From TrEMBL, chain A:
<keyword id="KW-0319">Glycerol metabolism</keyword>
<dbReference type="InterPro" id="IPR050861">
    <property type="entry name" value="Dihydroxyacetone_Kinase"/>
</dbReference>
<comment type="pathway">
    <text>Polyol metabolism; glycerol degradation.</text>
</comment>
<dbReference type="InterPro" id="IPR012736">
    <property type="entry name" value="DhaK_1"/>
</dbReference>
<keyword id="KW-0418">Kinase</keyword>
<feature type="domain" description="DhaK">
    <location>
        <begin position="7"/>
        <end position="329"/>
    </location>
</feature>
<dbReference type="Pfam" id="PF02733">
    <property type="entry name" value="Dak1"/>
</dbReference>
<keyword id="KW-0808">Transferase</keyword>
<dbReference type="GO" id="GO:0004371">
    <property type="term" value="F:glycerone kinase activity"/>
</dbReference>
UniProtKB/TrEMBL annotation, chain B:
<keyword id="KW-0808">Transferase</keyword>
<feature type="domain" description="DhaL">
    <location>
        <begin position="9"/>
        <end position="209"/>
    </location>
</feature>
<dbReference type="GO" id="GO:0019563">
    <property type="term" value="P:glycerol catabolic process"/>
</dbReference>
<dbReference type="GO" id="GO:0005829">
    <property type="term" value="C:cytosol"/>
</dbReference>
<dbReference type="InterPro" id="IPR012737">
    <property type="entry name" value="DhaK_L_YcgS"/>
</dbReference>
<dbReference type="InterPro" id="IPR036117">
    <property type="entry name" value="DhaL_dom_sf"/>
</dbReference>
<dbReference type="InterPro" id="IPR050861">
    <property type="entry name" value="Dihydroxyacetone_Kinase"/>
</dbReference>
<dbReference type="Pfam" id="PF02734">
    <property type="entry name" value="Dak2"/>
</dbReference>
<dbReference type="InterPro" id="IPR004007">
    <property type="entry name" value="DhaL_dom"/>
</dbReference>
């Protein structure tokens, strides 16, 4: 394992020190491992809290700031944060208008956030929850823990953050969050595994001439292992299952081509060109695009495609100003 | 001799013995979790129960509810993942149902454990045959209750529970996982014992062992 770390045990703590040093507009609670905005939540504004295991940067801490999240709880690499963290963060960001918890659908995350919300409710804070489950790679979702939360989480945090910034109330903000989750679908591919610092070796072995289609963001297995192919063929294998799952015609869409951490941007643009050809041929209108590393799996090589079926309101919220470490425009 | 009560000291000993067993079996639990999960169950349980016992040693509980609520909160805040909330909820509910007492009689212990199981079900939504800790916890408590119908002796009930726990643990090997990260493996989850079922079996082993020692 070659990594720029001091030790596997201190990766999270050391990185939070770096976040605090680089971003004076943010505050870091190093004990509870919470990243939150330096400016207190404006009175009447619904607060947005997310979190999860680390290793997916810039998600979630990199999306804390004006126009997106109010706070993010950080767990160990690929491990959910704990309810006491969610309770503390909820207390810090609540202005009295309530807090929306944005949770990716993984068993540990769901249970820890659920307990955190229960503890917060006991203190009188109104909490609502959206669980993101957009990964079409999971086929038998009724017989499993359900679809995983992946790329749509990024689009959701941006769009819902804008809705909260506009002053919409908790019910309205939650409704936008549910709409985004129901309208977004993702699919990923890995060309290599990732190496979790504490494990010290790759989570799985992928031969030079193979790729794993339908991979998640933790090095978990995908739908199938197939021979490596050119960008056009890989794009087809990612986009087709998404289009088979939801009808995207007749509405403007937002498309994200996301790198998993170990793939250069030039390859992501090659992939994006191929994805656009397929969408154009299918008669799908792409209104907005996002290409880059936004929800990663440490150093995994590969990418994911997310397509969101939008409407005028979602596009308006997407275009609203955002000022975070990971996403910034309109400021 | 029939032993129809269990003391706060014995219950503390139960948690300590559980800590010892998960620590001894850390590699085994992690190995099971490597096959169908994310390879952290052994280290998570060892860290969590280590914190529980440290807390008990630093400030011993005065009552049964204090003991188990403290253990539950410690697990919830120190473990993360799925096992933190599940084991944490189990012990929190055991404590709440046991109440501020210094000793539990056999029906009292049975009721507390049953409340713990209900908490696990409420938290994890698991059903029989999903290949989870439920597949050990439920049959073990049924065996515990059945044994108490015959005799009020807690140590023989705990022995029966442990025996049912082992059977339940081994039976998870043939099951298809329907909950948690293992469920994404589909058919590939068959042929492996569930790590949560294995650690729950250690919980009943610990109870049986500390009662036999008396």
């Amino acid at each position: 394992m070659k990594k720029l770390i001091n030790s596997p045990e201190t990766v999270l703590a050391d990185s939070l020190v770096g976040v605090a040093a680089a971003h004076p507009e943010l505050r870091v609670d190093h004990v509870n491992r919470i990243i939150y905005r330096a400016a207190p939540t404006r009175a009447g504004k619904v607060a947005l809290l997310s979190g999860g295991g680390t290793g997916h940067e810039p998600l979630h801490g990199g999306f804390v700031g004006v126009g997106m999240l109010d706070a993010a709880c950080a767990g160990a690499v690929f491990t959910s944060p704990t309810p006491d963290q969610m309770l503390e963060a909820t207390k810090v960001v609540d202005s009295g208008a309530g807090v929306l918890h944005i949770v990716k659908n993984y068993t540990g995350d769901v249970m820890n956030f659920e307990m955190g919300a229960e503890l917060a409710a006991e203190t009188g804070i109104v909490v609502s929850v959206v669980v993101v489950n957009d990964d079409v790679a999971v086929e038998d979702s009724t017989f499993t823990a359900g679809r995983r939360g992946v790329g749509t989480t990024v689009l959701l945090e941006k769009i819902v953050g804008a809705a909260a910034e506009e002053g919409r109330d908790l019910a309205a903000v939650t409704a936008v969050a549910r709409q985004v989750n129901e309208s977004g679908r993702s699919m990923g591919v890995a060309l290599s595994s990732c190496t979790v610092p504490s494990a010290g070796k790759p989570t799985f072995e992928l031969p030079e001439n193979e790729m794993e289609i339908g991979v998640g963001i933790h090095g978990e297995p995908g739908r199938r292992r197939v021979p490596l192919a050119g960008a056009a063929e890989v794009a087809r294998q990612l986009v087709e299952p998404i289009l088979a799952d939801l009808d995207f015609t007749g509405a403007p869409t937002i498309v994200m081509l996301n790198g998993l951490g170990g793939t250069p941007l030039i390859e992501l643009y090659v992939m994006y060109a191929e994805v656009r050809k397929i969408l154009d041929a299918a008669g799908i209108t792409v209104a907005r695009s996002l290409v880059g590393n936004y929800i990663t799996a440490l150093d995994m090589a590969g990418c994911s495609v997310t397509i969101l079926k939008a409407d005028d309101d979602l596009l308006h919220l997407w275009d609203a100003p955002v000022n975070t470490a990971g996403l910034r425009w309109g400021i | 001799m029939v032993n129809d009560t269990i003391s706060l000291d014995q219950l503390t000993g139960w948690l300590t013995r559980f800590r010892d067993l998960v620590t001894e079996q850390v590699s085994y639990l992690t190995e099971l979790d490597s096959a169908i999960g994310d390879a952290d169950h052994g280290s998570n349980m060892t860290r969590g129960m280590g914190a529980v016992v440290e807390r008990i040693q630093a400030s011993p509980a005065g009552t049964v509810d204090e003991l188990f609520k403290g253990a539950g909160m410690t697990l919830v805040t120190s473990v993360g993942g799925a096992s933190g909330p599940l084991y944490g909820t189990f012990f929190l509910r055991v404590g709440t149902t046991a109440g501020p007492v210094g000793t539990l009689d056999a029906p009292g212990l049975a009721a507390a454990l049953r409340a713990g199981l209900d908490g696990v079900v409420a938290r994890g939504k698991a059903e029989a045959g999903d290949k989870t800790m439920f597949d050990v916890l439920a049959p073990a408590l049924d065996a515990f209750d059945d044994a108490l119908l015959v005799s009020s002796d807690i140590s023989s009930a705990a022995g029966a529970a442990y025996s049912a726990a082992q059977t339940g643990r081994d039976a998870t090997e043939a099951l298809l996982a329907r909950k948690g990260r293992a469920s994404y493996l589909g058919e590939r989850s068959i042929g492996h014992i569930d790590p949560g079922a294995a650690s729950t079996s250690l919980l009943f082993q610990a109870l049986a062992e500390i009662l036999v020692k008396e």
